Amino acid sequence: MGVEHPHFKLIGHRLCPYVQRVAMVMGHYAIDHEREDIRLEDKPAWLEKFSSERQVPVLLLDQTRPLTEAAVICDYLDRINGRALYPVDLIESAEHSIWILRAERILSLTADLVYRAHNEHDCDLTLHRIGLILAILNKKFEAAGPFREVGLCMVDMAYATAFRAFPVLVYGLNRDLFAGFEHVRGWSERLLKNDIVRTVVPQTYHGELHHFIASRQSYLAKRLSMLPVPQKPALSASL
Ligand SMILES: N[C@@H](CCC(=O)N[C@@H](CS)C(=O)NCC(=O)O)C(=O)O
């Protein structure tokens, strides 16, 4: 017998990495739901009723009870479906949670590049911080292989959301973010080919992200605004 769920509505945004992680968990468990994407530049007044921070994702249960914070929503959805996205062993499971926090750190550093790094020096510093996390990841792959041999786990989903934006960063900054981290490069390529990972964003994701970033004020934004949006096959996470 299938699991009984409340009625779910996911309030999201077309490009948001946090929303993508929730959408991947929903895809993994084939959870039936409604989806409404909002514009961050022009948020609906009702959003505040569900998210005091006025952020997405919001998961609405039975139209009334909101859950916010991607990690909390994903863990809730995983728990009600038997917690298959984490290792059974509790210590290993806690270790996966640590890796997920590091993925969130990459997301927040990426947001620094998009919104707050206003010159080349700030960008270099931020890329260096991202590189420190990728170096730890690369060592982990060298020593212990992937997080899960077959299929996706929650760690995979969290990093897939971070890696997906890399081709646009690489293109805009003319820097290979994976240089020296070949295990992570290979993992990222495998993740981004996965059907669940691929299908939670529009096919035009990279072009839309290019425009989204280019309309901000950061150094990366200014560089992207001077570059043409490449055709999809030309975009890669490598130079
Ligand atoms: N800690 C939150 C972060 C979510 C977040 O930062 N969402 C962004 C979109 S990707 C947002 O709603 N930003 C509001 C804004 O840009 O005004 C989570 O994990 O869900």
What's the SSE blueprint?
Blueprint: E1 8-12, H1 17-28, E2 34-37, H2 47-50, E3 58-61, E4 65-68, H3 70-79, H4 90-116, H5 120-144, H6 154-163, H7 166-173, H8 182-193, H9 195-198, H10 205-214, H11 219-225
Parallel strand pairs: 1-2
Antiparallel strand pairs: 1-3, 3-4
Helix pairs in contact: 1-3, 1-6, 4-5, 4-6, 7-11, 10-11
Glutathione is lined by residues 13, 16, 18, 40, 55-57, 69-71.
Task: Provide an overview of this structure.
The longest helix has 27 residues, at 90-116. 54% of the residues lie in helices and 7% in strands. Helix 1 (17-28) links the parallel strand 1 (8-12) and strand 2. It has two domains: 8-79, Glutaredoxin, CATH 3.40.30; 90-234, Up-down Bundle (Glutathione S-transferase Yfyf (Class Pi), Chain A, domain 2), CATH 1.20.1050. The chain is of the alpha+beta class and 239 residues long. The structure holds glutathione. Glutathione (GSH) is lined by residues 13, 16, 18, 40, 55-57, 69-71. Residues 13, 16, 18, 40, 55-57, 69-71 line the site of glutathione.
